[in-house]
Amino acid sequence: AVVSTQSGHYGRDFKRFQVKYRRRREGKTDYFARKRLIIQNKNKYNTPKYRLIVRFSNTNIIAQVAYATIQGDKVVCDARANELPRYGIKTGLTNYPASYAVGLLLARRLNQKYGLDETYTGVEAVTGEDYYVEKEGDRGAFYCVLDTGLVRTSSGARVFGVLKGAVDGGLDIPHSNKRFPGYNDEKGEYDAGAHRSRIVGSHISNYMQTLLDEDEEAYKRQFATYRKEGIMPDMLEDMYIKAHEAIRADPVASPKKVQPEGAKAKSYKKQRMSLQQRKGRVAQQKAAFLALQ
Questions:
Q1: Which class for 184: exposed (0-12), middle (13-18), buried (19 or more C-beta within 10 A)?
Q2: How many CA atoms lie within 13 A of 255 on its CB side?
Q3: Distance CA 61, CA 110 (A)
Q4: How far apart are CA 110 and CA 104, in angstroms?
Q5: Buried-most residue among 12, 15, 38, 269 (CB within 10 A)?
Q6: How many other CB atoms sit within 10 Å of the CB of residue 282?
Q7: Model confidence over 33-53: pLDDT tens digits?
Q8: What percentage of residues in the chain have a pLDDT greater than 70?
């Protein structure tokens, strides 16, 4: 808040003005929400409180399970949309079906890490129906809460696609179906079939077919990457279903490429010129100037 005094000082000029946290100034973190997401009950001592963190960029979807410490957040597991080409989804890496696939990949990878993948298999065939994990045996399912960040949590948002994929993959995340595609707010009813059609990309294939029939040039322009990969409108559903099966078969992250010894990191900085190069550049500029006279 702006603080004023009788001497007429305002805002940053006031001697007791308190600068906000850096990530708040940058518009990256909602600390009001973060405080409530990370605070753990004192009687649970040092038990981590896990969050399913979902973030979107123009070309990628990042899903992580992490917990907060004084030193900073510690990431337990990570899955990204740029891994999906390995499972057969070559393009459209930021749409709703890709969001579901990223959530499923994260859940299967995390369960495998803790040896829960065989106990909590989740929903093996996509139905869109409500699913809540129930405890089986001595060990409970991995529990975490959804952290949406600054994204608008409107009905049908892609962040809930990641949530649905993670739940179907066997994670225990508190949620309801009221923000999923297919929920009718007026009737208070949830249409699981409508949600399934979103997960397998039916809305995309329908639009592709409509555009192909009405304006082929617009179709070629808008779905150029799909055409390059040889993906036609009637192939999308099979592509996503096969990707789900491939994720369940092998959710392990591919190993990082090892840089050979002595390899220099790629640098984008402009190389500094030597004295001889600078003198040569000046001589060229002089010659070019004199030639115009």
A1: exposed
A2: 3
A3: 17
A4: 10
A5: 38
A6: 10
A7: 999 999 999 899 889 999 999
A8: 95
Residue 119 pLDDT = 93
DSSP character for 95? S
Pair 104, 165: CB distance under 8 Å: yes
pTM over 0.70: yes
What single string gives the DSSP state of each residue in 171-210?
A: -B----STTSTTEETTTTEE-HHHHHHHHTTHHHHHHHHH
β pairing state of 61-69 and 72-80: antiparallel
Q: Measured between alpha carbons, how far is 178 from 181 in angstroms, rounded to an integer?
A: 8
Distance CA 124, CA 248 (A): 8
The identity of residue 115, as a single letter, is G
pLDDT in tens, 5-32: 455 556 667 678 889 999 999 999 999 9
Helix (H) or strand (E) holding 146: strand 145-147
- Can you tell me the distance from the alpha carbon of 74 to that of 166, in angstroms, rounded to the nearest whole number? 19
- Please report which helix (H) or strand (E) contains residue 63, including its range: strand 61-69
Encode pLDDT of 192-232 as tens digits. Answer: 999 999 999 999 999 999 999 999 999 999 999 999 999 99
**Local confidence band at 287 (pLDDT 50, 70, 90 cut-offs):** very high
Instruction: Give ∠ CA 136-141-144 in degrees, rounded to 5.
Output: 160
Tokens of 195: 């949600």
Surface-to-core class of residue 112, CB atoms within 10 Å of its CB (0-12 exposed, 13-18 middle, 19+ buried): middle
Q: State residue 181's pLDDT score.
A: 95
Sheet (strand 72-80) strand order = 72-80, 61-69, 51-56, 145-147
* Distance from C-alpha of 89 to C-alpha of 252, rounded to nearest angstrom: 17
pLDDT in tens, 83-93: 999 999 999 99
